[in-house]
Amino acid sequence: MRFSFSNIYEYWPTPQTFYFISSLLVFTFGIAITQITWSGKFKRIVIPKIKEKLKSVKNFNISITESQLTKLFDNMVRYDMVIIDKTSKDDFIQCFLNDWDEHKAKIHLKLKNPACKEFYGLLKKTFPKKNLQLVDFIKNSDLLRREDGLPFNYHTVRNSLTMLRVSKRSEELEAVFAPFS
């Protein structure tokens, strides 16, 4: 007796059963092959990358010293960008150097949304260490406040410089960061 497709097909009760069983075998074989070949590589390479991206950020990750923060705070006070009644120099330094959940300090800025985004860009450019993301700077940290005491809206700040390339306080912001260049 020879085994061929037509001979096997002849003895099955219905063609649907043959298609079902053959599809099930192909699917099971495919799953087995992927588990054997990909599992070790997946665990070694892909999983650590996903964990790194999902790791929660707890501080700003910028390379700045306390003396530089003091100078930055003084420059911002000189150009009237910080509300000094609500934000002390120590609060300002704590917010940038310590983890976000270690203190209750907030930074109250006299900046509109475009100026806040420009401040973020200059801070990131002047004091780089790791990738400081705008979402971490505005939303996740929950440390920056507007003049009215409410937090900045991340989506508004993110989209604020799309029409205009510079804010109204651009020259003042550049003067604040000029000593660090």
Short recap of the structure:
The chain is built from eight helices and two strands; from the N terminus they run H-H-H-H-E-H-H-E-H-H.
What does this structure look like?
This protein is mainly α and 181 residues long. It has helices at 5-11, 15-54, 66-78, 89-97, 113-126, 134-140, 154-158, 170-177, and strands at residues 107-108, 144-145. A two-stranded parallel ribbon has the order 1-2. The longest helix has 40 residues, at 15-54.
Descriptive key words:
57% helix, 2 strands, single chain, mainly alpha, two-stranded parallel ribbon, 181 residues, 2% strand, elongated
| Main beta-sheet strand count, sense and barrel state | 2 strands, parallel
Question: Secondary-structure element sequence?
Answer: HHHHEHHEHH
* Structural class by secondary-structure content: mainly alpha
Strand order of the largest sheet: 1-2
Give helix % range. Answer: 55-70%
Mean pLDDT: 82
